[in-house]
């Protein structure tokens, strides 16, 4: 299992567009055979801040996600125009 935790910050006034884009990315990512979980969260008091929690069955599944057409379009091409990636961290379960 591989876990990816990513934080994005929407540009001022682009929060709704970012939320819509994450909706599309979530829908397509959940269809991937190696994706165990894909959840997008919005900060309770800062509507510009988004947190994505992703689980993949292994490194190959994560790589497949990163090369999928929907990821290349939404996360690599569209999202950076309206939001900034703040941080991203890879984790693996302890047990």
Record the SSE blueprint.
Layout: E1 2-10, H1 15-29, E2 35-42, E3 49-56, H2 59-67, H3 69-82, E4 83-91
Entry keywords:
95 residues, alpha+beta, 4-stranded antiparallel sheet, globular, 4 strands, 40% helix
3D structure, described in words:
This protein is an alpha+beta fold and 95 residues long. It has a domain at 16-43 and 60-81. It is built from three helices and four strands, in the order E-H-E-E-H-H-E. It has a four-stranded antiparallel beta sheet with strand order 2-3-1-4. A hairpin with a 6-residue loop joins strand 2 and strand 3. The longest helix has 15 residues, at 15-29. The radius of gyration is 13 Å and the shape is globular. The termini are close together.
Mean pLDDT: 97
How many alpha or pi helices? 3
Give the % helix. Answer: 40-55%
Total beta-strand segments: 4
Give the helix/strand class. alpha+beta
Instruction: Pick out the low-confidence regions.
Output: none
Widest sheet: strand ordering: 2-3-1-4
Rg measurement, Å? 13 Å
- Ends apart, CA distance between termini: 10 Å
Shape: globular
Q: What composes the largest sheet?
A: 4 strands, antiparallel
Strand content: 35-45%
The ordered H/E elements are EHEEHHE
The gist of it:
Helix content is 40%, strand content 36%. It has 95 residues and is an alpha+beta fold.
């Amino acid at each position: 299992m591989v876990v990816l935790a990513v934080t994005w910050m929407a540009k001022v006034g682009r929060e709704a567009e970012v939320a819509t884009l994450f909706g599309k990315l979530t829908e397509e990512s959940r269809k991937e055979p190696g994706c165990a979980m894909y959840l997008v969260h919005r900060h309770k008091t800062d509507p510009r801040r988004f947190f994505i929690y992703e689980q993949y069955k292994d490194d190959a599944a994560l790589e497949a996600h990163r090369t999928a057409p929907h990821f290349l379009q939404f996360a690599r091409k569209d999202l950076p125009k309206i939001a900034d990636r703040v941080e991203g961290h890879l984790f693996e379960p302890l047990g």
